[in-house]
TrEMBL record:
<dbReference type="InterPro" id="IPR043129">
    <property type="entry name" value="ATPase_NBD"/>
</dbReference>
<dbReference type="GO" id="GO:0005997">
    <property type="term" value="P:xylulose metabolic process"/>
</dbReference>
<comment type="similarity">
    <text>Belongs to the FGGY kinase family.</text>
</comment>
<keyword id="KW-0418">Kinase</keyword>
<dbReference type="GO" id="GO:0004856">
    <property type="term" value="F:D-xylulokinase activity"/>
</dbReference>
<keyword id="KW-0808">Transferase</keyword>
<dbReference type="GO" id="GO:0005829">
    <property type="term" value="C:cytosol"/>
</dbReference>
<protein>
    <recommendedName>
        <fullName>Xylulokinase</fullName>
    </recommendedName>
</protein>
Length: 143
């Protein structure tokens, strides 16, 4: 099930807190199936970047409810399995520079993306253009 999972470990690498957000069930407003939106053309597969950010907000909030003390956090690491593209609007850097800790990230960043739905690794909607590009440069080996 596509999800965002967070673990908090101590200095002995023992898991002390764990939280998870399932995209489809915890964030139904994005209407994803398997964490993605698949077009009827069966080639266009996207996911909304705001969903990922809202999931991040929610997983951090759940960790907090479960007792994590963020003042003792030394580092945060992340890994994304969706391999998605995120397209920022011009001027989004100003929002990033002025984020407020008393407001959720998804509230602050929701207007910063130029694409509401971004292509992910499953998308094959540009296959014909990729093949044309290969031909124009002399084949896949030259490319």
């Amino acid at each position: 099930c596509p999800k965002l999972k967070a673990l908090a470990v101590n200095d002995s690498l023992q898991v002390i807190h764990e939280s998870c957000v399932h995209f489809d069930t915890d964030l139904p407003e994005f209407r994803t199936h398997g964490g993605v939106n698949q077009n009827t053309d069966q080639q266009t597969v996207t996911a909304p970047p705001v969903m990922w950010i809202k999931a991040f907000d929610l997983v951090l909030e759940r960790l907090k409810i479960n007792g994590i003390d963020y003042s003792s956090v030394a580092a945060i690491s992340g890994s994304g399995q969706q391999h998605g593209s995120v397209y920022w609007k011009r001027g989004a850097i100003n929002t990033l520079k002025n984020l407020k800790s008393d407001n959720f990230l998804h509230n602050q960043l929701s207007q910063c993306f130029s694409c509401r739905d971004s292509p992910i690794w499953m998308d094959s909607s540009t296959t014909q253009y990729c093949k044309q590009l290969e031909q124009w440069v002399g084949g896949p080996q030259r490319l």
